[in-house]
Structure formats: structure tokens, C-alpha cells
Design brief:
Layout: H1 2-5, H2 12-44, H3 49-98, H4 101-106, H5 109-133, H6 136-151, H7 156-200, H8 202-207, H9 211-264, H10 269-311, E1 332-339, E2 349-356, E3 361-366, H11 372-378, E4 387-392, E5 395-396, H12 402-407, E6 409-412, E7 421-422, H13 423-427, H14 436-445, H15 449-453, E8 462-463, H16 472-486, E9 490-494, H17 502-515, E10 520-524, H18 528-531, E11 536-541, E12 544-549, H19 551-557, H20 559-568, H21 571-574
Parallel strand pairs: 3-10, 3-11, 6-9, 9-10
Antiparallel strand pairs: 1-2, 1-4, 4-5, 7-8, 11-12
Helix pairs in contact: 2-3, 2-6, 2-10, 3-5, 5-7, 5-10, 6-10, 7-9, 7-10, 9-10, 14-16, 19-20
Length: 575
């Protein structure tokens, strides 16, 4: 929780101002019944018009002061709470950006979205109420009790009985409502998850005609949340008429007892009216305290969920004294690398050793699940190796800052990812300052120029969220162009040509070879035709290297490679 509280430090003076304003507001509210009593006793009953006017002017002045304090405290409290919520959202986003894939696997995407939005909103709303009530309620309660005792001690039992009934009512609501409030955020997470899966997987859902099943999933998550929310809201709804009944009953009892006292001459009418006002203030104060305690449990759950994100220490961090490479060649060395995913029983990679040299293409091929993508995910430190080391130009990737390391790499993931914007902004994503000529050159190498030129707006064509308005092949080519525009020392293509036809694949590889210069190229592929011209081919089988060499060498020495090749092409085609 300290991680959350520290973001309040910039607003301490504003919080102090809110509390001071609320204090003044509470004191003015406590003074009004006194003046009302004076008007009735000394003015109306005595027939003194001057006393009525003098006391009335004082009441108007105090009311105006209280109104100003109320408006100012509300404004400042809202300003502090919203600014605090803004800082919390920024802090959560900043921490999530530091997460490795290990932490992303711990927190689901749906949960992270809920924590950044709904949970922060819960904390903000409670903070607004808390700032205004934490000083107001105790002052009004204590001040009201003292004033009531001073006005007429013999009637304080009425206030005590009313407060006791109020505590019984709030205790009942607490007992019934708290368990439901604590699980509401998890139900929001669940609804968010199901909704997100339905929207992102719409094509698959329609292709398999599973709309009824998905509707049932969403309906269940929606009904669970609705049922819980209705239960909590009904409790809150019941509380209002119960409170009104309690306050009206208290008022009637005060009038009945007070009228008898007035008739007996032991109490004045103004004092009875003042006592009634103090009783209402006391009950409202205890009600405000109860409301705070009702909202705090749900907000504390939300605060704990936010703190979980902020307190999660990324497993991959920068070294205290990062090193830089003496030469920018892009020489990549895997030295006896072993890696196991967190919680896995067996390593995904074992004793992987190879060197990828500048100006050459090192291809990685193997059956599904052999560890191809795992190798290229280790290079930019999406995960850290559990054994061995990875070097770039003789420096361990663990000794480099993550920013410096990833500046050297142009990474094209297995699944092409585009961002909302335009084709231009997506290609220039890794190199914002590049010229239009360089953008076109990158697109030309990636074989994307043809379809871009056929679009009415060219490079300024809008890209929808997730790149849904372009095909899979176009998305991959734009992802490749984005990596090329960066002009890195090392290119990493993680099965990035799978959505391309053979003609485009061949043209793209030829263009890469001509324009890559002395950059190192790591290429993961499933097709033999994609890797056949590589200077070095690494064959993986069950996380181990089954063979290293050129296509011709592996056809003669590596049975695994030969089986993969013959499953795709004939002997004549391979020859």
C-alpha cells in the first residue's frame, strides 16, 4: 500500500486546505441551531424585532461562509482525487511497460485493464468522499453531542437510542454486503476477459458457428456481475428509507418529549428546535462514517489490486553499471544457453550454442514446439536465460541496458501487430524522424509498395485498431517494413513470412539480401524454401540442436532436416 500512498505527497498542502475548509464548514453548521434557538426564544416569543434581525444577519453571514467553504472543499477534493487517479494510472502503465513476458503471464490483459480503469476509479471516488467526511463527521458528531447535552441533558437518551438503532442497521448491512462487495472486482475482471475474447476472436467464433456458446459465456459473466451488483445496490436502497424512518421517528419522539417539557415550563421552544437539529446532525455524522466504512472495503480491494501491480518487481531489470559494445557489428553468440519457462517441468531449450555473423543469414528451423520462437525471444531479453549466456559484439545482453539492447534489434514478431494510426506512422514507429523517401524504401524492400500505392490515401491510409482493415499478408509486410526502417544491426524475423505467398516470399528475401548490408539476420521459418539460401541453418528438435550447417550439408548429415525438407519438396526440387 505504500506504493499507492506515496503518490499523495505532491498534494499534501491541497489535502490540508480541504480539511481546513471542511473544519470551518462543520463549525458553521454547528452554530446555526444556536442562532435559530435565539431567534425563537429572544425574538419571536419576546416580540423583539431587533433581536430577530441582528441574529438573522449573523445566520446569513455564517451560512454564506459555510457555503463558500462547501464549494471550495468540494472543488479541491475533486481536483486532488482526480489528479491522484491520473498519477496512479500513469504509474500502473509505467510499471506494466517494465514487465517481462513472465509478469504478463502472471497478470491477464483483462485484469490489467480493469486495474488501470475500474480499480483506480473506485479509489478516486472513495478519496473524494473520504476527504470531505473524515473531518466533518467526527466534528459534527462530537460537537452535536456536546451541544445537545448543553441544551437539554434529560433528552440525550433519545439521541443515544437513535444512534444505537443506526449502528444495528449499519452492522446488518455490513454483514450482508461486505462479502459481495469484495468479489465484485473479480466479476468485473471476468466480464472484461470474456468481452475481450469475444471481440478479438470474432472471426473464429463466426467461422465455427459458436455464437450461441459465446453468448452463454458472456451472459453468465454478465448475470453474475449483475446479480451481485443488484444485491449490493438493493441493500443501499433499503438503507435510505430505513434511515428516513429512523430520523422521522427520532424527530417525532423529540417533539413529543420536548412538547411535554415546554408545557411543563422546563424547556423553551427554541431549545427544543435546536435539540432536534443537533440530533439530526449527530445521526447524519454517524451515517457518513458508516458510508465511509461501507465504501472502504471495496476500495481497499481495488487499492490492493493496484498495489499488486506496482509492487511486482520485474524479473528483467537493467544492470547498475550497463556496458556498451565497443564496435557496432551485430555479432550474436549463444553460449551453452539453457532456458525453462517459469513453472515448467522441463527446459524449453538445452545447451544451445551458435554464432550469427554480420552480413549473413542464420536460419532456425524445426518442428512445432521445438523452441524456435523461444530462441529469438531470449535475444531482446523478453525472457532471461536460466543457463549459459547470450553475447552481442562480445558483451552479455544482461550487462546492457534494455533500451540499448533493443535499439540494436529490428524485431518482427510471429503475429504482425499494427497500431491505430496510418501506414506512415506504423512504418516510422521505430524511427520517428525518418524521411518519406526512407519510408518508401523500407516498404519497397518489404514488398509493400504495390498495395500501398493502390490505396487512395497511400501512406496516409488509416490503420484500424489491431490492423483489422488490412489482410494478414499486408500486416506482415508492414511489420517487416517497420523493422527495416529502423536500420538496426540485427534483424530478427520470427516466422514472419508465413502469411506471404511463395513469389512474394522469394522477392522479399532477395531484396533483403541486397539491402541488408552487414546487418546480422536471424530468421525463424517453417518453409524449407525460406531457409535454403541461408549461410547457416540451425535445426532444432525438442529444444536441442540437431544440426548446424548449410542446406547441402544438412541434407547429407542431419536426418531431422532431411525429413522436414522431403515433407515439403521433392528430391528434384531440393536438388
Amino acid at each position: 500500500m505504500r506504493r499507492i500512498a506515496k503518490y499523495l505527497k505532491p498534494y499534501l498542502w491541497q489535502i490540508a486546505a480541504v480539511l481546513a475548509l471542511v473544519f470551518v464548514q462543520a463549525m458553521t453548521d454547528l452554530q446555526l441551531p444556536d442562532y435559530m434557538s435565539q431567534i425563537v426564544n429572544q425574538g419571536v416569543l419576546a416580540g423583539d424585532t431587533g433581536a430577530i434581525l441582528a441574529t438573522g444577519l449573523k445566520m446569513i453571514g455564517i451560512t454564506l461562509l459555510g457555503s463558500v467553504c462547501t464549494i471550495a472543499s468540494g472543488y479541491l477534493a475533486s481536483r486532488v482525487a482526480t489528479a491522484y487517479a491520473r498519477d496512479l494510472r500513469a504509474a500502473v502503465f509505467d510499471r506494466v511497460e517494465q514487465f517481462s513476458l513472465t509478469e504478463f503471464n502472471k497478470f491477464s490483459t483483462a485484469s490489467l485493464i480493469t486495474r488501470s480503469t475500474n480499480d483506480v476509479q473506485q479509489v478516486m471516488m472513495v478519496m473524494i468522499i473520504f476527504l470531505r467526511m473524515i473531518v466533518m463527521a467526527p466534528i459534527m458528531a462530537v460537537g452535536g453531542i456536546l451541544k445537545a447535552v448543553e441544551t437539554n441533558p434529560s433528552m440525550t437518551w433519545i439521541v443515544a437510542a437513535a444512534v444505537a438503532c443506526l449502528f444495528v442497521l449499519m452492522g446488518l448491512l455490513f454483514t450482508l454486503g461486505m462479502p459481495k462487495m469484495k468479489i465484485m472486482q473479480k466479476l468485473v475482471d471476468r466480464l472484461n476477459l470474456v468481452t475481450r475474447e469475444n471481440l478479438t476472436g470474432m472471426r473464429v467464433i463466426r467461422a465455427f458457428n459458436t455464437e450461441p456458446y459465446e453468448e452463454q459465456r458472456l451472459d453468465k459473466a454478465n448475470r453474475d456481475l449483475t446479480k451481485t451488483s443488484l444485491f449490493v445496490n438493493r441493500l443501499m436502497t433499503i438503507m435510505q428509507p430505513m434511515m428516513m424512518l429512523l430520523m422521522n421517528a427520532t424527530t417525532v419522539l423529540i417533539i413529543w418529549v420536548g412538547a411535554n417539557a415546554v408545557g411543563a415550563g422546563t424547556m423553551q421552544v427554541g431549545d427544543m428546535m435546536a435539540f432536534m437539529q443537533y440530533a439530526m446532525q449527530i445521526m447524519f455524522s454517524f451515517l457518513m462514517v458508516s458510508m465511509i466504512f461501507i465504501m472502504i472495503p471495496r476500495a481497499s480491494v481495488s487499492a490492493g489490486r493496484i498495489a499488486d501491480v506496482l509492487e511486482t518487481v520485474p524479473t528483467i531489470t537493467d544492470p547498475k553499471a550497463p556496458k556498451t559494445t565497443a564496435q557496432a557489428n551485430g555479432l550474436v553468440e549463444f553460449k551453452d544457453v539453457t532456458f525453462a519457462y517459469p513453472g515448467a517441468e522441463a527446459p524449453a531449450l538445452e545447451h544451445i550454442s551458435f554464432t550469427a555473423r554480420p552480413g549473413q543469414t542464420t536460419a532456425i528451423i524445426g518442428s512445432t514446439g521445438s523452441g524456435k520462437s523461444t530462441i529469438v525471444n531470449l535475444l531482446p531479453r523478453f525472457y532471461d536465460v536460466t543457463g549459459g549466456d547470450i553475447l552481442i559484439d562480445g558483451v552479455s545482453v544482461k550487462q546492457m541496458s534494455q533500451h540499448a539492447l533493443r535499439e540494436k534489434i529490428g524485431f518482427v514478431p510471429q503475429k504482425g501487430v499494427l497500431f491505430t494510426g496510418t501506414i506512415r506512422s506504423n512504418i516510422a514507429y521505430g524511427a520517428p524522424g525518418i524521411s518519406e523517401e526512407e519510408i518508401y524504401k523500407a516498404a519497397d524492400i518489404a514488398q509493400a509498395t504495390e498495395f500501398i500505392s493502390n490505396l487512395p490515401e497511400g501512406l496516409d491510409t488509416p490503420i484500424a485498431q489491431g490492423g483489422t482493415n488490412v489482410s494478414g499478408g499486408q500486416k506482415q509486410r508492414l511489420s517487416i517494413a517497420r523493422a527495416l526502417a529502423k536500420k538496426p544491426e540485427i534483424y530478427v524475423f520470427d516466422d514472419s513470412f508465413s502469411a506471404l505467398d511463395f513469389k512474394t516470399d522469394a522477392a522479399l528475401r532477395a531484396a533483403l539480401k541486397q539491402n541488408m548490408g552487414q546487418a546480422t539476420c536471424l530468421l525463424v521459418a517453417q518453409r524449407i524454401s525460406t531457409v535454403v539460401e541461408a549461410e547457416q541453418i540451425i535445426v532444432l528438435e525438442e529444444g536441442k540442436i540437431a544440426g548446424i550447417g548449410t542446406h547441402k550439408e544438412l541434407m547429407q548429415t542431419c536426418q531431422v532436416y532431411r525429413e522436414i525438407a522431403l515433407s515439403q519438396l521433392t528430391e528434384e526440387e531440393l536438388a
